[in-house]
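Tutorial, part two.
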Amino acid sequence: GARLASGLVLLANAGIQLFLGSRYYAIMPLVLYAWLWKEMVRPLPWVLVGGVGLAVVGVVFPVLAMTRNVTGDDRFSWERFSQVYTGIDNPFAATVSEVGGTLMVVAWTMELVPAARDFDAGLTYYYGLLTLMPNFAWDLHPSIAYGSPTVWLVNAVDPLFAGRGGSFGFSFIAEAYLAFGWIGLPWIMAGIGFFYAAFVRWAKGSPARLAMLASFASFFTFFVREETALVFRPLIWYSVLPYLAVFVIHEMRRSYLVRSTA
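Running the prediction step on this input gives:
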């Protein structure tokens, strides 16, 4: 029952997110759920996984890339989506091409820093950590007041696109370069890889830890295309704190059972 309920909740979330045009928050929780199912229950049939993967990469992603800004009745028109899909020359190439656009973010950052903006000596990480605090003491949260690398980049590269509310996202590689340049880049990358690998090894063998890891990864993988300020809060509030709550409740229950049987 609990497994069925959790799966239905994630499927409902995926449907809503896809309808709104958000691919990552629709698909990644399902991917991590499938991985968690493999680790804790049994592996899913490879035919099912492969078929769904091909459908997502070859149909869902390219169509949403072309229609995410569609509004009105067209949102409910299968004919509209069908026309868009048949107009794509190569859906798989379109998906790879769009994902590869993240590399342009890195290239633009390296071109503009320090030519148009100085290195920030790690301040984006500091203000990213500050996002863990709710905005109850300021009119404008310090992390917002400092400025977002994502907003800075799109305004520097394409002001017209920025004026329409567009964004290129960012990148953990670009943020590391923005912090300390070429000198700090390999150290930050190595540190992120080391601690994430250590976290994965620590989570193995415990259902609660694996669940936390799955929730953690569903946000952390977006770090590839975003900045620290947009991932710290969900990592802690939606992953670490729920795990700690489960741990405390488990320990309290175990202590109660020990006392009641003594």
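The radius of gyration is 21 Å. In part three we will examine how such features are distributed along the chain.
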